[in-house]
Amino acid sequence: MSRTQNRPLVRGLISQRSALLFAILTGCLGVGVLWYGVNPTTAILGAGNLGLYAFVYTPLKRLHPVNTWVGAVVGAVPPLMGWCAAASQYSVTDSSNSSIWEESKDLLLTEQAIGGWLIAALLFAWQFPHFFALSHNVRHEYATAGYKMLTSSNTAMAARVSLRYSLAMFPICIGLSYYDVTDTAFMATSSVVNAWMLREAIKFWRLHGDKGSARALFWASVWQLPIVLVLAMVQKKGLWERLWRSINGEGDSEELWDDEDG
């Protein structure tokens, strides 16, 4: 395939054995660093994602188009790992005295964890317009190589799925504001960017990827995700209020309360 023909393994610059050993070594090392340097929950998510990618997603690409949905899960797990890594600093559970299950429940199954799941949902939904637009123009190469991609077997359905998940961006971003991950203005700013990708997804759906609609959707998706994530960081709930207090030397209200108690 034109997309992969220059990769080192394909060109024979490294052997399959060396690639396998490198993957095992770095995978084990990475999981170990997460376990001892972050927390077991993040390490388990990482290990599970490695297994999902290597032993489910990769072989599934030659078996059924559902591989894209599995791949979307693989893409959604890393931000959830990041959320767990950061949230563990503020967890009310004493990790030294709690079980892994208790820690995981605290980091993943509480109301405070909804933000992490929403960001994961954002990455999950994004995969479809991005990948289907990307794969559309090389769908015949995928088919020739023996990969079962939806753009090869059912272009119309791939376009509908892309449109559906482009629409899903709106409630996901609204949810981030509703659950106080971002401020209220994020609903408006993210909607502008999401509307751009939705417009291209509609064209992709109507034209079945022809007349440059696939390329237009691909580039819209390339820009949409980082812009939305940057907006979420810039418009994090309470960020500017805390910054203003810091500039004025006021400190957070919680810190002032603690000082009064002391």
TrEMBL record:
<dbReference type="InterPro" id="IPR006369">
    <property type="entry name" value="Protohaem_IX_farnesylTrfase"/>
</dbReference>
<comment type="function">
    <text>Converts protoheme IX and farnesyl diphosphate to heme O.</text>
</comment>
<keyword id="KW-0472">Membrane</keyword>
<keyword id="KW-1133">Transmembrane helix</keyword>
<feature type="transmembrane region" description="Helical">
    <location>
        <begin position="20"/>
        <end position="37"/>
    </location>
</feature>
<dbReference type="GO" id="GO:0005739">
    <property type="term" value="C:mitochondrion"/>
</dbReference>
<dbReference type="GO" id="GO:0006784">
    <property type="term" value="P:heme A biosynthetic process"/>
</dbReference>
<feature type="transmembrane region" description="Helical">
    <location>
        <begin position="43"/>
        <end position="60"/>
    </location>
</feature>
<feature type="transmembrane region" description="Helical">
    <location>
        <begin position="216"/>
        <end position="234"/>
    </location>
</feature>
<dbReference type="GO" id="GO:0016020">
    <property type="term" value="C:membrane"/>
</dbReference>
<feature type="transmembrane region" description="Helical">
    <location>
        <begin position="72"/>
        <end position="92"/>
    </location>
</feature>
<dbReference type="GO" id="GO:0008495">
    <property type="term" value="F:protoheme IX farnesyltransferase activity"/>
</dbReference>
<dbReference type="Pfam" id="PF01040">
    <property type="entry name" value="UbiA"/>
</dbReference>
<protein>
    <recommendedName>
        <fullName>Heme O synthase</fullName>
    </recommendedName>
</protein>
<dbReference type="InterPro" id="IPR044878">
    <property type="entry name" value="UbiA_sf"/>
</dbReference>
<keyword id="KW-0350">Heme biosynthesis</keyword>
<keyword id="KW-0808">Transferase</keyword>
<feature type="transmembrane region" description="Helical">
    <location>
        <begin position="112"/>
        <end position="134"/>
    </location>
</feature>
<keyword id="KW-0812">Transmembrane</keyword>
<feature type="transmembrane region" description="Helical">
    <location>
        <begin position="155"/>
        <end position="179"/>
    </location>
</feature>
<dbReference type="InterPro" id="IPR000537">
    <property type="entry name" value="UbiA_prenyltransferase"/>
</dbReference>
